[in-house]
Amino acid sequence: MNRSQEHANSEGGGGIPRPQIEQRLLGSLIMWPEGLPAVCEGLTAAHFASAANRRIYCAVVSMHSTEEPIDLVTVRDELLREGDLRDVETSEYLVGLAEQAEQAFQSAVGTEGPYGPAGLRSDMIAEMRRYARLLRELGPVAD
User: pTM of the prediction?
Assistant: First the structure.
């Protein structure tokens, strides 16, 4: 099976296809960047099968390391600045990532945003950790 088509079948993986795991994690990182340090240890761009998703992950990590604000607009601007927006399918792809993350989180937690209370923030970070763990378990993708 192609590494980009793998499914996370481990405990808690629910057979989620790799592309969906990547998209949910990236959308979560864009929507809730404060969770990045808690979830991304041991995760590299090589864990993302999609070239566009690798570029987005690198942009988010780079922006976080320089303490730049992270949201849909700033990530889009960073990708444009780096000349990497060409196959990210413009802003629509980023918005789709955020929407998918929001829907997955609502489904997992059984509630709707905004996510201010500490309990919901904890649940959100737990979901982000789960996606990161699943990608680590699937392993890096060979080019």
Answer: 0.80
What letter would DSSP give residue 70? Answer: -
Could you give phi then psi for residue 142, rounded to 5 degrees? -80, 135
DSSP 87: T
Upstream peptide bond of 17 is cis (omega within 30 degrees of 0) = no
Domains of the chain: 18-137 (1.10.860.10)
Residues sharing a CB contact under 8 Å with residue 59, sequence separation 6 or more, in sequence order: 75, 78, 79, 82, 84
pLDDT along the chain (143 residues), means of 10: 48 72 93 88 92 92 96 90 66 86 74 54 83 92 69
What HEC string does 97-122 produce?
Answer: HHHHHHHHHHHHHCCCCCCCCHHHHH
